[in-house]
Write a structure and sequence with these properties.
heterotrimer; A mainly alpha; B alpha+beta; C mainly alpha; B: alpha+beta; SH3 type barrels; four-stranded mixed β-sheet; 4 helices; 7 strands; globular; C: mainly alpha; Hydantoin permease; 16 helices; 0% strand
């Protein structure tokens, strides 16, 4: 019973039948990425006020980057069904790339204990978060 | 025990067995009925306990499998479920009280085996809970 | 005075021991996705568990035997076996989830990967179950679990729009952009988290472990009727925190670290430290309880000696089951399946198994042979039967909804 449900839930790779399904998957991916970015922003907030332990902050940032990367990886593995989907993919990939790049920088700095640098590194994030949110809203 | 009429299914089967020292000794998985030589209604002569007996009560494929496993474990001896002679029964209440200690019962074999081969090797197994 | 102290201890332990990894995950994820619109489910769940836990405790207190012990006598070997299979499977899954939860909590504090902690956690859980006295175990982890109150403190310190929160809670409605099936699916998960079967079995067996007698009936009722609702309130605090901090930002908490964010942002480092202690205590305590419940369930069906009130050498098969269950639970977590995912499955499947595990309790609590004059009142029976109907509906809806909503994604 559980195994059956798991199979149904498995991420699907390979071609997807319609643009609608592809679009909603894109929207979901954007949602996950947005959630990760927002989490990172909160963590950076906490770092600003020296509110948290370094270890905890690092953990949060590592997980945020993991979430965004794996969402991108899963999405990229799906075959876009047509040209229109290609365009969608291009836009989303651009946003996702920005997100994961910044999150990676944050993760690296945190791992090195350079918490003072985090707010500066996180500058692009609010805009990325907004755009991902808008994307998810439009296509989810 | 004279004078009380009991329904074997209701008051005996699946009841908890408690030994002389108050320790839990299994459940009544099945009953052994013997037809007396001179004829007449069958008498309850023993309580059967353990996977061999339970397997038969559960029935179906699962029960048969349980019984087979139990028989496999009883190497050598005749393949029958562990029994407790009804003479050992002291009192029938909400639980069935026996007049013998657990260790003297056939049904304790698996418990004793587990104790001797596994649990006894762990430090502190014999320590009374303070 | 001493009596008062004992009662207070019991209540506090019940509060601290109420929350486990299932409640943490369910309430945080629900709050982040649906705000307070599903708070009513926690209320329904708490009333349900109060009802059945009081029954199970009463059964053990009056008859001297744990509820599961009597299920086989009342319902027969076959029905009880089905009950055992379902209960054991669910409890085992929950055990694995709790072990994972402890490892995650330690990971948060140390930054060392949770997988490395799993064997250590499993060993510690087994050690405590093997050596530590029952009531010491309960009191230590129950009280330590109260550290979770810091989440409530954070909420109060924040001074949020209480009216808004209350309005969200009392006007349950599916938020914009979310589907009805998903909303109901989360409701089922929340119910499963609040009413996990193991709590009832553990509570009943625990009464026997601690040697409760008729004189303790009042204590039983106080612990349940005061302790559990306050514990439920603690769960709702996590939901509120997620509603206020995570929902507006569209953060879906798939990690324990994200659940801690609200408390962290309001109370800083100390708040976070307290919360992590609370997470650790709640999950470790629940790991102990689920581990023991695995042993209780099997031992009470087959009738062999169980309990921490005898020497381990006198309950060898019971302890063997504990050992194997804990090891296997750790094994499941070590397959690197996300502990949060294991938790999600455990609470959903718990919801599906609830009628099977709760129905026997209602039957046994009505039996005058065991209960004497302490059988259920007509009110308890009416409410209990109502709940069973509800639980049957929930159970029937669980798998279809899970498939329909792709497990709430």
């Amino acid at each position: 019973m559980v195994a059956g449900a798991l199979l149904l839930l498995g991420a699907c790779t390979g071609p997807v039948r319609s643009v609608d399904v592809y679009e909603s998957k894109a929207g979901q991916t954007a949602e996950v990425a947005a959630s990760a970015v927002q989490t990172a922003l909160l963590a950076v907030d906490a770092a600003k006020g020296d509110k948290a332990y370094g270890r905890y902050l690092t953990q949060v940032l590592v997980e945020a980057e993991e979430d965004a990367s794996s969402a991108q990886g899963t999405f990229d593995g799906i075959q876009p069904p047509d040209r229109r989907a290609d365009a969608l993919r291009g836009r989303l990939d651009g946003l996702l790339g920005e997100a994961t790049d910044t999150l990676a920088e944050l993760r690296i700095a945190a791992r090195r204990g350079r918490f003072a640098e985090l707010p500066e590194l996180a500058r692009p994030l609010p805009k990325v978060a907004e755009e991902l949110g808008a994307f998810a809203e439009a296509h989810g | 025990m004279a004078g009380r009429v009991l329904d074997a299914g209701l008051h005996l089967l699946d009841r908890q067995l408690v030994d002389r020292d108050g320790r839990l000794a299994g459940k009544v998985d099945d009953l052994e009925l013997t037809i007396p030589d001179g004829g007449g209604p069958p008498l309850v002569t023993a309580i059967l306990a353990g996977p061999g007996a339970l397997g038969r009560r559960i029935g179906g494929r699962l029960g048969a499998w349980v019984e087979a496993v139990a028989n496999r474990l009883r190497s050598g001896e005749d393949r029958r479920p562990s029994r407790i002679s009804f003479a050992v029964v002291k009192r029938i209440g909400s639980a069935i009280e026996l007049s013998a200690p657990k260790a003297e019962l056939e049904t304790d074999r698996l418990e004793a085996w587990t104790r001797d081969h596994i649990i006894a090797h762990l430090p502190g197994a014999g320590d009374a809970p303070d | 005075m001493k009596r008062l102290f004992a009662i207070a201890l019991g209540i506090l332990t019940a509060i601290g021991g109420f929350v486990d990894i299932g409640d943490i995950v369910a309430n945080a994820e629900t709050g982040a996705r649906f705000g307070m619109s599903l708070a009513w489910v926690v209320v329904v769940g708490v009333i349900g568990i109060c009802l059945f836990a009081e029954m199970a405790g009463r059964v053990a207190t009056v008859s001297g035997r744990a509820v599961f012990d009597l299920v086989r006598e009342r319902l027969g070997a076959r029905v009880a076996l089905v009950n055992l299979a379902a209960s054991f499977f669910i409890t085992f899954l929950t055990l694995a989830a709790e072990i994972g939860g402890v490892a995650l909590a330690i990971e948060l504090a140390t930054s060392v990967n949770y997988l490395l902690w799993v064997p250590i956690v499993a060993f510690l859980v087994w050690l405590v179950v093997w050596r530590v006295k029952f009531d010491v175990m309960e009191n230590v982890f129950g009280l330590a679990g109260l550290a979770l109150v810091v989440a409530a403190v954070a909420l109060w310190r924040l001074g949020p729009d209480w009216g808004g929160l209350l309005h969200g809670a009392t006007h349950p409605a599916v938020p914009q952009g979310e589907g009805h099936p998903t909303w109901w699916f989360f409701a089922i998960a929340l119910l499963g988290a609040a009413m996990t079967p193991y709590e009832v079995f553990f509570f009943s067996s625990g009464a026997v472990e601690e040697g409760w007698s008729r004189a303790d009936l009042i204590t039983n009722r106080l612990n349940v009727y005061i302790g559990f609702p306050l514990g439920g309130l603690l769960s709702l605090t996590l939901m509120a925190g997620a509603t206020l901090f995570l929902e507006p930002r569209g953060i879906q908490p798939g990690h324990l670290s994200q659940v801690a964010l609200p408390t962290l942002l309001v109370l800083g480092k100390l708040g976070l430290a307290m919360l992590l202690i609370g997470f650790f205590a709640a999950t470790f305590g629940a790991a102990l309880e689920t581990g023991l419940s695995c042993g209780y369930a099997v031992a009470q069906y087959f009738g062999f000696q169980w309990g921490k009130f005898v020497r381990p050498a006198d309950a060898p098969r019971f302890h063997l089951i504990l050992l194997v269950s804990i090891a296997a639970g750790a094994g499941l977590v070590l397959t690197t399946i996300d502990p949060i995912t294991i938790t999600e499955y455990s609470i959903v499947l718990s919801a599906a198994a609830l009628p099977l595990t709760y129905f026997p309790i209602l039957v046994v609590a009505n039996d005058p042979d065991y209960m004497g004059d302490k059988v259920n009142s007509w009110f308890t029976n009416a409410l209990g039967s109502l709940y069973l109907v509800l639980l049957l509906v929930v159970a029937a809806a669980t798998i279809p909804l899970m498939i329909l909503t792709k497990a709430g994604s």
